[in-house]
Amino acid sequence: MTPRRRTTVLAGSALVLLAAMLVGILVGPAGLTPSGVILDVVDRLPFVDVDSGLTARQQAILWDIRMPRVVLGVLVGATLAVAGAAYQGVFRNPLADPYLLGVSSGAGLGATLAIAVGGAAGFAGVPIAAFAGGLLAVGATYALGRTVGSGRTEVVIILAGVAVAAFANAIQTFFMQLNDDTLRQVYSWLLGRLSTDGWSDVRTVLPYVVVSVAAVLLHARTLDVMAVGDVEAASLGINPDRVRLILVGVATLGTAAVVSVSGLIGFVGIVVPHAVRLLVGPGHRLLLPLSLIVGAAFLVLADVAARTVMSPAELPIGVVTAAIGAPFFLLVLRRGRVSA
User: Which PANTHER family does the UniProt entry name for this protein (predicted)?
Assistant: First the structure.
């Protein structure tokens, strides 16, 4: 793909993301208008003073409820999609996703323990517990992988992740059975949600997301080289084990951070990179940034569906992403279009 076409594709996808964000902000009973929202955003710029026409209540809804939720959706969707593309590239496994090495199981166990031990009061500690649980699970995966086969092959690490995930799920189930009065809260978190208390969640995950995404994007060329195999990559001066450790580490850091505030949202990290790969090919210099943008837009629109399908009740966003992602992925598998 020529540089000009690459720029056109990225610009077009960025416009789609902006449109998705506008939809996410507008949908709801507050009566916000596109012109009012745009003018109010412009009014927040330095040295600009325009009248948006929004009431004080509408401005509070826009800046304290809708905008933080949409921005959080962008961060979560972008991180999961980029992490999925990185995992698929680093392990050369088309079925890899951000939860491959036990992040989801570790985060779920941490959240379950926080809720079960603390009850309603413990729900405030869920993000910290989930973040710590996700990182500990991946650390255990790598420690186990290094004791079996010296951690030198991606297959050993993946199998270690399966073992750690199964163990964490068993412990989680045990505590859920001991504390069945908290099952509703646990399942509410496990099924995913983007409800926020202002901008606190966004500020919490933003540093981790920036570090994680930037590190992955900087390794785009390296991932293209690693696609040919470890031996060939090593002959070109790349240390596959070191690159794999770095990319898995930063992708896991970002995933654990966003999962800690959003719960477990499946299929974004596996479906979005595949969809993008079908459109633009396997080159990571375009695949990674495009996955970032498409993943962000996809999750924002999925959240809109979660808020409106059963309004005034709210459907867990994980149910929406699974309902969309599972049929798409099955269709791709049926057509034999899954490619590393």
Answer: ABC TRANSPORTER PERMEASE PROTEIN MJ0876-RELATED, FERRIC ENTEROBACTIN TRANSPORT SYSTEM PERMEASE PROTEIN
What DSSP state is assigned to residue 123? G
Q: Name the residue ranges covered by the structural domains of the chain.
A: 3-28+68-334
Q: Which residues contact 268 (CB under 8 A, 6 or more apart)?
A: 76, 77, 80, 81, 84, 295, 298, 299, 321, 325
CA separation for the pair 237, 51 (Å, rounded) = 58
Task: Out of 3.20.20.70, 1.10.10.10, 1.20.120.1460, 1.10.3470.10, select the CATH number for domain 3-28+68-334.
Answer: 1.10.3470.10
Kindly state the DSSP code that residue 63 receives in the 8-state scheme.
Answer: I
Q: According to the model, what pLDDT value does residue 313 have?
A: 82
pTM, two decimals, is 0.91
CA angle 24, 272, 62 (to 5 degrees): 15
Task: For residue range 324-335, list pLDDT tens digits in order.
Answer: 888 887 877 776
pLDDT tens profile 206-235: 999 999 999 999 999 999 998 888 788 888
How many Cβ atoms sit within 10 Å of the Cβ of residue 128?
Answer: 14
Spatial contact of 93 and 108, defined as CB atoms under 8 Å apart: no
CA dihedral 235, 153, 278, 77 (to 10 degrees): -120
The answer to whether 258 and 205 have CB atoms below 8 angstroms apart is yes
